[in-house]
Amino acid sequence: MALALAGCVSPGTIRLAEGEVREYEGERLSSISDFRENSIKGPQVLAEEDYRLVIDGLVGHPVNLSYQDVLRYQKYSKAVRLDCVEGWSVDILWEGVLVRDILEEAEVLPQANTVIFYASDGYSTSFPIEYVLENEILLAAKMNGVTLPPERGFPFQLVAESKWGYKWIKWVTRIELSEDASYKGYWERRGYSDSGDLDSHFRD
Hints:
The protein has 204 residues and is mainly beta. It is built from three helices and twelve strands.
């Protein structure tokens, strides 16, 4: 039986999107149509006009952003491979904003050691704060040049580079700064590795 892991993919239920980029810097990209919806509660349909991204916890200045507020940050694009624990991968051109830019505005407090991401469907996952602050980790709004469809995480999906697909949380609605380094997200509570590192086994 296939596991319903956030961010994991297999051939496709989403049609090729109009204007979708299929090549980047001479390298062939996978398609949006290569993705399958396999989240824990089915696709989440979030209205742009109602969407809010909350950054709270151990911050000096809690932030509450609309969809357009998030898109006002500097945008970046890069091709990143998503590797699923089921044994296959896709190469996608992601476009979005850096998580660390948003956290900078929130003024992270010194005692924070963990960043916890929450989704609208109840999914969650976490990372050591160094991973987010020391790397160019995107909160993506587009893939292959088109806006994320609901099945892929609109408004925003985390591009968790060098991590297994279950760390690529979709439909992000809240980012909490915490000092609970032992926090376990949805699949981590079910025995999957907290680190989610590609160079280690995904099961603890």
